[in-house]
Amino acid sequence: MTIVINMRDGVDERGIRIAARLILDGKLVAFPTETVYGLGADALNARAVKRIFEAKGRPADNPLIIHIADFDDLGKLAREIPEEAKLLAEKFWPGPLTMVLPKEEGVPDVTTGGLDTVAVRMPAHPIALALIRASTPIAAPSANISGKPSPTLAEHVIDDFYGRIEAIIDGGETRVGVESTVIDLTSERPTLLRPGGLPLEEIEKVIGEVEIHPAVKGKLVDVAKAPGMKYRHYSPNAQVIVVEGKRENVRRKIAELVREYRSRGLRVGVMATERHEADEFFHLGGTEEEVARNLFKALRELDRRGVDVIIAEGIEEKGLGFAVMNRLRKAAGYRIVWA
C-alpha cells in the first residue's frame, strides 16, 4: 500500500517524520523538488537504492543523483571538492545544479552506477530539504517509470507508482519543470553533461567557459556519468515530432503536419506557444520559464487524451530553452522536422 502525504499547503512536520522514518527503514518515498518529483531512498543503503532501479525499471549503469541539505554533507560523499564546486555551491545551492565529483569510498557502487564519481545537488524546495534533514542524504532520480516523461505533479507519480512504493508526498506542482543541470568537475575542464533548470550562461559567469559533452547533442555514449546521457528518456506513448526553424515557418509546418496525419486517420495533438487547430492542443506558455514548467505535463496530458502523434514546437536554445530542446529531441527520438 502507498500512503499519500498532503503537503500542498507547505511542510507538515508530522508528515516529514513519517516519510523520514520510511527512508531510514530502507523504503521508497517520492517527494517534490523545485525541478521535478524525485523517487527517494537512503543514498548510503545499497539495498534501498537497488529498489529504486527495480521500481523504475532503470538500467543499473545509469547513476543516481544524491540530494543533500547542507554543504557539509558534500564531504561525506565526495573525496575531493575543487574550488569550482565551492564557487558554484555558494552561488547556486540550494538550486537546480548537480555537480559530478570524485566519489568517497562510503558511497555504494549501486548509487553511482558502478562509477568512481558521484553526482550531488542541494534542492531548493522546503519539503525536500526538510525530508533530507530529518533522515539522510537521499538518492533520487525522477519519480517516473524509466523512459517516460518526468513528473511535475504528485498525480503523475501516483499514475506510475501507486501500490509500488511506500509513500508519495504531494507538494503541488513543481516550479522549474525540467531536471537539474549537471556539470562534471572531474574532467580536465568543467563539462556540461545535461542542460537543465540552471542555464549554462549563468554557470559560465561564475567559472568561465564550460565544455559541452557530445551526448548533450545526441551522440551515443558507452558510459553515462549522469542521468539522461545514454538511454531513452522523456518519451510518452504517442509518437513525438519536433518542428524547428523560424517561428512563422514553424507555424505553417505544424499546420501542414496536422493535416497530413489527420488525413491518415490519426489523432493529432499539438504543444506550442500559440494556438493551433488539432484534435488536442496544449498551450506551453509564452516564456521559456513557462515552457519548461509545462513541458512534461504537456507530454503526459496529451498522452492521457489519447492522441497518436504529438507535434511539438521547438523554441530558441538559450537560457532554459537549451534544456527544453534537449528534452524534446530525446522525447521525439530525434525525429525533427525543419521548417
From TrEMBL:
| Annotated localization | Cytoplasm
Tell me which residues bind L-threonine: 35, 67, 121, 140, 142, 180
Q: What is its EC number?
A: 2.7.7.87
User: Which InterPro entries does the UniProt entry name for this protein?
Assistant: DHBP_synth_RibB-like_a/b_dom (IPR017945), Sua5-like_dom (IPR006070), Sua5/YwlC_C (IPR038385), Sua5_C (IPR005145), T(6)A37_SUA5 (IPR010923), TC-AMP_synthase_SUA5 (IPR050156)
Q: Which UniProt keywords apply?
A: ATP-binding, Cytoplasm, Nucleotide-binding, Nucleotidyltransferase, Transferase, tRNA processing
Question: What are the recorded GO MF terms, alphabetically?
Answer: ATP binding; double-stranded RNA binding; L-threonylcarbamoyladenylate synthase; tRNA binding
Q: What is the enzyme's main class?
A: transferase
> What are the GO BP annotations of this UniProt entry?
regulation of translational fidelity; tRNA processing
- Entry's transmembrane regions: none
Q: Name one GO cellular component term.
A: cytoplasm
What PANTHER family is this protein classified in? Answer: SUA5, THREONYLCARBAMOYL-AMP SYNTHASE
Q: What does this protein do?
A: Required for the formation of a threonylcarbamoyl group on adenosine at position 37 (t(6)A37) in tRNAs that read codons beginning with adenine.
Report what the protein is called: Threonylcarbamoyl-AMP synthase
According to its UniProt entry, this protein's organism is: Thermococcus siculi
